[in-house]
Amino acid sequence: MRRESRRGEAATPYLVLLPMSQPPPAPPPTTARHFNGLDGLRGAAALLVFLSHASLDHLHLFGVDFGGIGKCGVAIFFILSAHLLTLQFMQRSDAASWSVPNLKHYFIRRFTRIYPLYFVYLGTALVTTWASTALFGMNQPDGVPLTLDFPAWIQHLILVRGDGVTWSIAVEFKYYFLLPLIAWILHLMARKGRLPQVALMVVAIAAAAYYGSDVGHVENDPRLRAYLGIFLTGSFCGLIGSLWERFPDYKYRVLTPLFIVGLGFIVLTTPPMIKTLGLVNPKNYQPQQWMFYHGIAFIPVLFAAAYGNGMVSRIFSSRFLRFVGMISFSLYLWHPVFIKGGARLLKEYDPHLVGWIALIGTLAASYVSYRIIEKPFLKVGGKRNPPPPR
Fold first, then answer.
1. Which of 93, 178, 278, 294 is deepest in the core (most CB within 10 A)?
2. Which range marks the domain in which residue 376 is found?
């Protein structure tokens, strides 16, 4: 959902990534890098959410019921955000990342990344809900993109409530406050070596997963505790990413089977495959219960897309997926409007055709939303050039 992606170096040859060349010298810790593959991975996650919600309205693109697969896409969003933001902190070798000016810049950047579009989105819902009864005389309020009265509008703004797709925004923004503290603790523990850092994160992830185990009983839970394990997994990826160039070349040979197993697990435990193979009783299948496990399995996919220079990286670095990744936040918010609008207004037409119309409309509207709302405010946060290394 967020676009602070960084580009990694080419990898040493191995089965899955098939790199073309030897890696260039590693840049200094303060040099910004951009991962094109993670831009596309974010775009793929946004498309998973769209396909899931389209299927729930019986618009089955490709003739497949993708209902429920959106939770896997949201897990990818969570891990990508935590990974990239943690990596930005961990790439520095001193305590300057936690100085007041740098933290101020961090929070301004987070606010301008989320709240301008989020405010427009919630404002549209509030105004259309009021207009549905006051101007159009409807018996029941019906807002677009969701129905909100004024108290609910306030609750959404302060992140204590998340109707529709907004639940994930409430969860993710809360983690933004916790993330600098986690990165700071990891920074302090670096003095004791890398093993204590890794051990701490593994224990923290396990504890958070156990603590939030009741997520399976609450769909679209806006509490951070329910998904803390997934975010910590993303921060753990950020820690590993900051050390990536220090690992021996056999890291790629290890990554290859992990990639195959991880991707295979994700595919086999998504709702379409569950229904096809009968691995779990579809009546008892709850996608939110699998989000943490999908997040764990997603780790090698993330590193393959970020640091490889072969097939996986090329797929996720394609122009289309990177374009969708660029507009993914707008797409995530606005896509229900086109899905539900198409399902209602074009219900006499072929559902497959309506689904494609909804997708094209969503992409077009999301691009406009990105250009006129997101992009201008991204410049407000700006890029803060780090001081030269000492």
1. 294
2. 36-97+165-381
